[in-house]
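The instructor's notes for this session suggest beginning with a concrete chain rather than abstract definitions. Hand out the sequence below and ask the class to guess, before any prediction is shown, which regions might be ordered.
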Amino acid sequence: MPARAMSALLTAVEVRRGHLFPWTPVFLSLGIGLYFTRAAEPPVWALWAFAGAAAVLALAARRLPELWAPVLIALALVAGGAALAGARAHMVAAPKLDHRVYGALEGRVLVLDRSSSDAPRITLDRVWIERVPPGETPRRLRVALHGAGGVTAPPPGARIAMMAHLSPPSAPAEPGGFDFRRHAWFKQIGAVGYANSPAVMLSPPEGGATLLVHRMRMALSEALRARIPGDQGAFAAAILTGDRSAMSRDTIQALRDSNLAHLLAISGLHMGLLTGVIFAALRFALALWPRLALRLPVKKIAAAGALAVGAVYLALSGGNVATERAFIMVAAVLGAVMADRRALTLRAVALAALIVLVLTPESLTQAGFQMSFAATTALIAVFAALRDRPEGGWRPPRWAQGVLAVVISSAVAGAATAPFGAAHFNQVSQFGLLANLASVPLMGLLVMPAAVAAACLAPFGLAGLGLEPMRWGIAWILCVAERVAGLDGAVWPVPAPGPAVLPLIALGALWVMLWSGRARALGLLPILAAFALWSAAQRPALLIAESGGLMGAMGPEGRALSKPSGEGFVALSWLENDGDRADQATAFARPGLTGARGEQEAMVAGQRVTLITGRGWAERIAPACARGWVVVPQYVDDPPAGCRIFERAALARTGALALFPGADGPRLVTARTLAGARLWAQ
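After discussion, reveal the predicted structure:
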């Protein structure tokens, strides 16, 4: 390309050295995505090659003319992202179980939360497992306490013992589905399970700063629930300490259906509101002292104070990934204030994203990262465009500007996060904008300021003066969630998209927001292509669980399941990915599977598939093989000759199965094929 044309292109895209920074997390993400989308684990020498290439390209960019430097930096970031993600995956490597275990275990309590079945759940480290060699013992494991008496909620730091059923982290429920093994790998969780017997405390909580802070969180959570009973107190504990263990399932579902569940997650909204209230209060208080206000940089002092409070909030909230992202973003904004720079810019967002990706590259694949940065980037881009619009145009009256800002911010944040929320959670809240307009302003104007007031008044025994107004605001939010979730058509179920959909949407949206000039409209093309692919997404005609005990066939009324209960997590995952809000019992009653229970059949592209369960299963295999393929949730040592049989050992190797109709019969896809031979899948 001629130099003049290249110069014009770089000027249009604004990626010279002065304008490249907002693009750095984009190129770094491309490299990270390259690592995670590979079908096989790259060898270690390839990771070193990527790292070396990144270093060489970065050095070359410093020596070559400015014209070519941005291109080399972009390539260096892509190579560096791939190396960074691979290095992180190897750094967190830890033993994991490769078989099921039932027996005694001991461990130190790290985290308390609740499972998807609403049971208390604990994460343990310093683990000992009966009959498991020390070199094969997981570094951490997670156990749900189902009906366990005794110490069902041991304090963090305590060492406990129990009898538990343990298994390796679960593989995807269907080919291409969410891979919990990868999620657990980066958390160093090598086993999951449940306990029905009481847990016994072996030793009291240990010391240590981390565990001490966690116990303070739990104590604060219990104190809040004691002062504010019911779901209102549980909501207060969730937004202040990150402890959602007392939230009822019905309330959580209502918040999800009304698109208000983000209020529970301690993320950018909470961190921004808290530090914003502290910043404004400190600046106002210091300004009341004229001598101090005239001699000291009051604005910078207020920013430093707000940053310190944000750090304390980060510690008390548990320091999860979403909260860490929020704190980094707030730190970037307040740091800009202290450096006399414009605070809310795309460069501040890029800095926060860059820090998060460098520290935890795996967060790129998580819904929290995608949704939080999508909302933040879109809000800054839209309000920057409104701020820079030409003079002379219509401007709202001063009294209406605040109301309009709330409406615009809620609409923009909702639109930016909707595709990611729909892809990850398989639903869109039809009235989410209405619910957010009725609730989010109250979070900023009443709930969070009242929480700050309660914290300031607590040493004087007057915390109730802040907690009571806080309770009023929370009661309103929960009422809005319940009313909106109860409206007809409040939730629009959405089927799971293909793997290319979200990357296309993200790249197209980033092009629109970061590119300058009329060419930014080209970013709409990949977005439209993504939605076209999503609308044409084909769900499997037949799904078979890895256990072999559950089968689901797509029928005229939706997916029909082979049993009304059992393997509920897999069944719910299938239905949600279909965009189906039915429960397992309803799906069992649908047409789609034929035959009696214990020998159910489905037809896919002319091929009969029979699921054989129950007593006498061995004698029924041969007749079923004469009719077509057979699924058996047992180990079959000597299957009939010429029989296509999916028994327990074979399914353990392939993972869950999906069958699609094809021109020459069914097309079979295995979970193992799509997940690839990765570190976490071995």
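Then share the key points. Residues 286 and 483 are 43 Å apart (CA to CA). The radius of gyration is 27 Å.
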